[in-house]
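new request in #modeling-help
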Amino acid sequence: MTHPAAANFNGQKPTIDANDTAMLLIDHQSGLFQIVKDMDVPQLRANAIALARAATLLNIPVITTASVPQGPNGPLIPEIAEAAPHAQYVARKGEINAWDNPEFRAAVEATGKKTLVIAGTLTSVCLAFPSISAVYAGYKVFAVVDASGNHSKLATDLTIARLAQAGAVPIDIMATLSELQGSWNRADAEQWAKVYTQAMPHYQLLIESYIKAQQVATEHELLDSQR
Amino acid sequence: MTHPAAANFNGQKPTIDANDTAMLLIDHQSGLFQIVKDMDVPQLRANAIALARAATLLNIPVITTASVPQGPNGPLIPEIAEAAPHAQYVARKGEINAWDNPEFRAAVEATGKKTLVIAGTLTSVCLAFPSISAVYAGYKVFAVVDASGNHSKLATDLTIARLAQAGAVPIDIMATLSELQGSWNRADAEQWAKVYTQAMPHYQLLIESYIKAQQVATEHELLDSQR
Amino acid sequence: MTHPAAANFNGQKPTIDANDTAMLLIDHQSGLFQIVKDMDVPQLRANAIALARAATLLNIPVITTASVPQGPNGPLIPEIAEAAPHAQYVARKGEINAWDNPEFRAAVEATGKKTLVIAGTLTSVCLAFPSISAVYAGYKVFAVVDASGNHSKLATDLTIARLAQAGAVPIDIMATLSELQGSWNRADAEQWAKVYTQAMPHYQLLIESYIKAQQVATEHELLDSQR
Amino acid sequence: MTHPAAANFNGQKPTIDANDTAMLLIDHQSGLFQIVKDMDVPQLRANAIALARAATLLNIPVITTASVPQGPNGPLIPEIAEAAPHAQYVARKGEINAWDNPEFRAAVEATGKKTLVIAGTLTSVCLAFPSISAVYAGYKVFAVVDASGNHSKLATDLTIARLAQAGAVPIDIMATLSELQGSWNRADAEQWAKVYTQAMPHYQLLIESYIKAQQVATEHELLDSQR
Amino acid sequence: MTHPAAANFNGQKPTIDANDTAMLLIDHQSGLFQIVKDMDVPQLRANAIALARAATLLNIPVITTASVPQGPNGPLIPEIAEAAPHAQYVARKGEINAWDNPEFRAAVEATGKKTLVIAGTLTSVCLAFPSISAVYAGYKVFAVVDASGNHSKLATDLTIARLAQAGAVPIDIMATLSELQGSWNRADAEQWAKVYTQAMPHYQLLIESYIKAQQVATEHELLDSQR
Amino acid sequence: MTHPAAANFNGQKPTIDANDTAMLLIDHQSGLFQIVKDMDVPQLRANAIALARAATLLNIPVITTASVPQGPNGPLIPEIAEAAPHAQYVARKGEINAWDNPEFRAAVEATGKKTLVIAGTLTSVCLAFPSISAVYAGYKVFAVVDASGNHSKLATDLTIARLAQAGAVPIDIMATLSELQGSWNRADAEQWAKVYTQAMPHYQLLIESYIKAQQVATEHELLDSQR
Amino acid sequence: MTHPAAANFNGQKPTIDANDTAMLLIDHQSGLFQIVKDMDVPQLRANAIALARAATLLNIPVITTASVPQGPNGPLIPEIAEAAPHAQYVARKGEINAWDNPEFRAAVEATGKKTLVIAGTLTSVCLAFPSISAVYAGYKVFAVVDASGNHSKLATDLTIARLAQAGAVPIDIMATLSELQGSWNRADAEQWAKVYTQAMPHYQLLIESYIKAQQVATEHELLDSQR
Amino acid sequence: MTHPAAANFNGQKPTIDANDTAMLLIDHQSGLFQIVKDMDVPQLRANAIALARAATLLNIPVITTASVPQGPNGPLIPEIAEAAPHAQYVARKGEINAWDNPEFRAAVEATGKKTLVIAGTLTSVCLAFPSISAVYAGYKVFAVVDASGNHSKLATDLTIARLAQAGAVPIDIMATLSELQGSWNRADAEQWAKVYTQAMPHYQLLIESYIKAQQVATEHELLDSQR
């Protein structure tokens, strides 16, 4: 019998194949975001949206769900549905682990994909529980920890260890986006650049400075200090 | 021969089954708490109590013990016995690893459970030693690191790596509570909400704001700024 | 003309006289607490309550107020009114600076006190604005920054500098409580100890260990390790 | 002779009077933003834009300028001109201190205002130099340090001390916005709420949760966990 | 009337004159040290002892006192009396501010010195209260904040601002020791070096490496890697 | 073929057996300590000495060595030889990995022990290289990371992952001391308490307060505040 | 079938053999460096250069490549080519994973080496993707994380876990340099010392102090304080 | 009598006039740098050198000195003399405060300048003592705290407060360089840019990216991803 840590990519290359991927975005709710303390909440919000945009660019199926959004956990942030209009929303009946909800599992199976990119708030609960369940059910799971959000950094450290031990691949937003994109040599390259500026404000600065520098060179603009 | 890291859940789903679980709360003593530097001590205290409350809600057996409470380590914090009145206290005879004490091991075996949720101060000693021993004795072990408390963050980083290597599951308080609870669709849901506010003060704020917002809507209360 | 920084204690000893003091607790609301990032929110909550308790012990007049509690800012935390049942609540009409509200100013004047201990969430707004206004109106102002809560540490650094520049005394919770208490040689000393354990969890641990150590000595209890 | 620290509000109330205010937004450039290390750059960007929006709501004159935007410092971020379309841009001729540029000084004087709200990247240079110069020239200066951005936190600590010593008021974004707004009892209150969500993402979460909670109450929506 | 911030060195050079100095070491107690969170407790302990040693080297009078050492605050750390055997201990009667105790004030006055070097745990209480009182009584006060210890870094930031505002000089251990020593050109230079290694472990490393490097040069020792 | 991560305790309990243990203390040199940035150097120094003391209490063989102590790396800190007078020093000939030195390997083998407790500065080099080599040579290796010291925290994070991957047990000082000690029910218990106060200054405070509290109870000492 | 984590050193010693090593330095570009937030950029730059220097000293083949250096990512830093003039540059065609580029793979294979030392900016993308691909292709991979640079510390934590899980060895700069060097007993020892001062500024200080101390001893220089 | 805090710029503009300035660079020694813990040592070293370079560009007199460089404090870093070959070195006779040395004071007076830019290691001693003395002697003093280096961040916080209280201007490296430079509209602008890249590595990245972007535009270079 093999090691469980190897379960979901044993003998396969442990990387994301965009053609075999479905994306699960779980419990990104306004109330739960108030509890997040392991990363900047605006960065978390931007990262979750960036995942949705990448899925849209690649026609990757997206399933969303929420934990009792009528209560203190609050509503799903609206930008996810805006960025992935094709996303399917599955209402649960109170199950904390989305995988425990039969409609949710059925929706995942209906995609026909065997690789899952998952993000969920809180990381140690809403991301970790379905990730571990999905590995156990035979899926290749990539758990996007910095598009999830947790109640403490220590809890995130613990969750990374638990996910790795259970055979899910812990991954960050940039690796996820880049493995999905694959190459800059593609027709929609500019749209990918916009996805990155969404998740990396310093990349936006680079592009702004780059465009200006080229414009100064092309238009032979004089430096103010040399006027 | 299989990998020891797989020992306690090899072939089984690496999650907590509340029906097969006993809880061990080890050495949560006032003196030892002064040494804790890897997390806020009030948060640690709240998390340990939350574990005890969850055990009471689910009728999970609880065993407590202390390391020479007559000396500088100080007394057990009283809230644990208050939150879990059914807990059994086992006095040791100086053994640092509680598992080395025959009465303690016997008490665990007497529960008939094969899954152990363990917390203990200091994390690298009072949590880690019995966890590793219990894995070796064939138990499924969930080590609740942020209900334990350690002398440095580096020591906790080391302990997480050691626990994972030894086949115990490192886990945080929210994942532990949520796996035990399973679903919000249950009769005692409100009592679980109180457990969470115990361990997550920001969740308490959410509930307070939520109730007030609904009350304003229901009672058509005017905004002060519109009077 | 003298320096404004000297305005509120020029020629007087810059310390708190409990007999000349009124306490203003401003905008400690559940929603605003979600925005606080310069200190632990549970600690902030405990510190605000400790101020109210101290005022009750000393019969210091307390005035509370809230910023549009019917809106997203949320309700006042209930513990303040519980800890200071004699507190007077003044509803405002949308003024951000409580001092701009005539009823609020009148309530302060009605106390007849010339020394004000003020705390308010957010520090840079709800504490700072009335503090600066009150100094300008001739009061001695002690601004309790760690019973207030702010949106960033940098904002708090800025506010400390601004308060000092404007002639308010920036102060922390322990200095405030201790200057009010004055001496341990008083009938209600034990009640003061409880106030401190409220605001300093490590002090609670000290007391728990202290009582146990004395009990072991008095009752000649044997160490577990020597049984 | 009076103390220089008192120069710009000696005998006056050290607060912002929106009717007497001009706003100077200096050198918020894409290249310079890469150097900022004392605060999150997205937060800085949001704060600078929030200042521009507030100025537009109140018809406060805005003057912008840039330090050699044709060179590595890069272009001004475009959102400032978008948020304050009435802003006047003054090109400099290489002067590091904007106040050294005669056209810039003339533009400030032309507003007829004696209170200046200033922000500039880098804090210790582009904010501090004009602030100190303007105090010396007799203006009341409010230096918005967290809408500026600096190369290190230590440099910001030093600049706060220097600004206070020179008689400028060090202030944060929330205090600046709130002193300008004054009261929630105004026709454009909702637009102010949007300005705050721009600069405080956690405030946006509060509003999202608040609206949902009221909607659930009003529409008698059932909780998912009770279906 | 002059600015109170200038009270204790107005017209005098704001530096320590060892010949005019008495040292007050207040409430360095084992229990209170458990509450210290603004600096490493071993460093605090070392710094307090270093002050006592310096006083002994220079025959500076030392007065020590404790806050109810029979209670949870615990005993004075013994090293201070060991390092300054000439220190005079004054028991208080419960006064939190040592300056409120008549015997303590009398002991200070009996030294005939007008410059006071003060350290006390907690910084915001046991250091700040006597410092402010002594400035008000006309003494030059140097408040050694990093030989004191406080319950939070924010509280220390507040205390530094309050001390400066009240006219006490906030100072660190190295500045205090070095101003007392004055010059390395003195007979007891080696003893001073030992004081510094006490308070600066990296200085001890420097000396160890220095001695070894000189020994290798003098004794023509071969490098192990060249054997 | 088994997993290499399991190499050194496959089928055995992954804990330290004091009777089968030798201790290797490598390159704790004054110069190298200046480079340490992942932990407090005084704490590192104390932890290394505590290991040596524990070895002496248990008659565990100790082998020390240094990396070119005649050069900038500097001399071994003297306290290790003082705390473990029975330690054997092995000079190397420039090998960075002590295990590459035949005399060093021979000295280890001569102890007849199969469990090694190792600490070395820098962690990622002087601890990690011999640890990985010893695992490969069939030893059970416990790598005491917080008695070692490294050039950055990131480097230590990397080394913990590498050590675990290679089959060494990453461990902290408290776990190491406690596993060696085993029980407080032993004749030399008091000497062990002294070892802990060496490595944990807060434990020393606990003991000081404990003794005083018992003394007050036994001798019926009056509180100062009740005199 | 063996565990993938063991793939690249199963049965072999998991250390670097300089004679079997090629070095891949990927995407160290001026624009990408602006995005790096998990470590100091100057330290990152120094570490990357140190790798190149070490490769030159040992005649290790070096392959460099860049990700669209004509765009906002910017040019390769020039010092790498200066430090390793023998490095081969391979231009890609937009592939994000350098291993996806056939010329790059061919260049690696042409070296005939089976051990790869890899560094790349961003760590979670440009280092991690080729590392995982190379492990899957049968290489022994050492991933030098602190010569790479990532967009957040959390992303680096995730990448370390992913790399270890995939069978690459996560390693730091000092371990990499030291395993390559092996011993100080070699002709080019002094050149290695220079490489270390490049990457460890505190080592440079040690050498400067060491030389001066020996010079003082040799030349019998008098101390200034004894003149 | 005026407030001492106003002493050195009372009635004057509190800015640096390059024509009236001398620069004092005190005790930047290899040994003392090992003790620095309030900032990165490489950054400190770069900042001190940048000051020297700026002085050379402007023909500002520079005086250097060292504290017993024959002892453990170590030699002056050589780059200062390299960057300012015109600097005058004054040997002291053991005085800790350089201002206490008559030759040093004479050298300062001989420059005929009344504005002093000072940096010194340690900040709280070697920078603060001469700064306070020079203010007292009537000089305008600018104390460059981040070109100095201190034993702890808390000590630096204390020193900033003390310097401001004593009437010295606390300032950072960028403000100092920029006030000295004044304008980019000058013949040596490119040399100033090099000084900034010395002290701000991210500025160097900006320039590298800027040049490449312009080159791509000018030479119509194709993007790799579009080949």
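bot summary: The domain at 19-179 of chain A is CATH 3.40.50.850 (Rossmann fold).
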